[in-house]
Design goal:
Elements lengths: L6 E7 L7 H12 L3 E7 L5 H9 L4 E6 L13 E2 L1 H6 L4 E4 L5 E4 L2 H11 L8 E5 L3 H12 L4 E5 L3 H14 L4 E4 L9 E4 L23 E4 L8 H8 L3 E3 L2 H14 L5
Helix pairs in contact: 1-8, 4-5, 4-8
The chain binds 2'-monophosphoadenosine-5'-diphosphate (ATR).
The site of 2'-monophosphoadenosine-5'-diphosphate has 15 residues, from helix 5.
Length: 263
């Protein structure tokens, strides 16, 4: 029941109709006993600064979730950024303080690692191949390094971005081996798609899936479709697969905690 005391939360996206966060977040609020509600807000790229300025002015707003295509554009609109958001150059959760300041953070990396563990895959000590070098890939690479993987290989269409990410990881000093790779994931224990490829039916595969072998684990960040062409190919080749949905499912309690709506 929404009342005058209800705290507001939102999710900003374009398109919006596919988002699952309102259902899951609101169920979590009920379970945690908070008088808070999260609503979907369809905001275009052009309108993002105006929408964020308006949200900043709303005193009973706890904060908001930010997703495609706003994760990078949200960075300069925040007053403060967490270390993870600075590293990733992207934001997916924003807390509004009582003074009306916006704190941006990204939970994609921690959510991905928690999702892998929920799928029964422990990344510590393993070698990981990551396809992609955008916002999500950066967040995931740093979280995997922090989780203690032994080696990270990065493959990206734009090679310079893969090199930049590899160098940033080396400088961060996690102690794992770093390499820039081609499209072939051979020799890595865990293979991750951290590109946006797989969202659309017409997308090419994000890596050379015909080189996958049954001893490899293939993890996806795409949630819809649940079974991307990459996962279908991996399954057909006998690989262990980890679906994309747990990455977001595991982030929800972390997002609520970040907004102060703790258990
Ligand atoms: P996100 O926040 O979801 O990571 P992003 O920062 O735009 O979004 O990154 C998208 C990733 O998918 C990038 O690694 C991008 O490769 P480029 O850096 O070369 O652009 C990758 N990607 C998107 N479309 C692609 C395509 N058609 N072929 C290959 N890679 C693609």
């Amino acid at each position: 029941m929404i009342s005058g005391r209800t705290q507001l939360c939102a999710i900003l996206a374009d398109p919006i109709a596919h988002v699952r966060t309102p259902e899951t977040f609101n169920a979590l609020m009920t379970a945690r006993g908070h008088d808070a509600v999260l609503v979907p807000m369809h905001v275009s790229t052009d309108a993002l600064p105006t929408a964020v300025a308006a949200l900043k002015a709303i005193a009973n707003l706890a904060g908001f979730v930010v997703t495609v295509p706003h994760k990078i554009a949200m960075v300069p609109l925040c007053d403060e950024l967490s270390g993870a958001a600075q590293i990733a150059g992207a934001v997916n959760i924003v807390r509004r303080t009582a003074e009306g300041r916006l704190h941006g953070h990204i939970l994609d990396g921690d959510g991905f690692v928690a999702g892998l563990r929920q799928s029964g895959v422990e990344p510590a000590g393993r070698s990981v191949y990551i396809a992609g070098a955008g916002g999500a890939a950066n967040a995931i690479a740093f979280a995997l390094a922090a989780a203690g993987v032994s080696r990270i290989g990065i493959w990206n269409r734009t090679r310079a971005k893969a090199e930049t990410l590899a160098n940033r990881l080396r400088v961060a000093g996690y102690g794992c081996d770093m390499a820039v790779e081609g499209a072939d994931p051979a020799g890595y224990q865990i293979v991750v798609n951290a590109t946006s490829l797989g969202l659309r039916e017409t997308d090419p595969l994000p890596l050379a899936a015909d080189q996958l072998t049954s001893d490899q684990i293939v993890a996806e960040i795409i949630m819809k479709p649940e079974w991307t062409p990459l996962l279908l190919e991996a399954k057909a080749r006998g690989c262990t697969v980890a679906l994309g949905a747990p990455m977001l499912d595991c982030q929800l309690p972390m997002m609520a905690d970040y907004l102060g709506l703790t258990a």
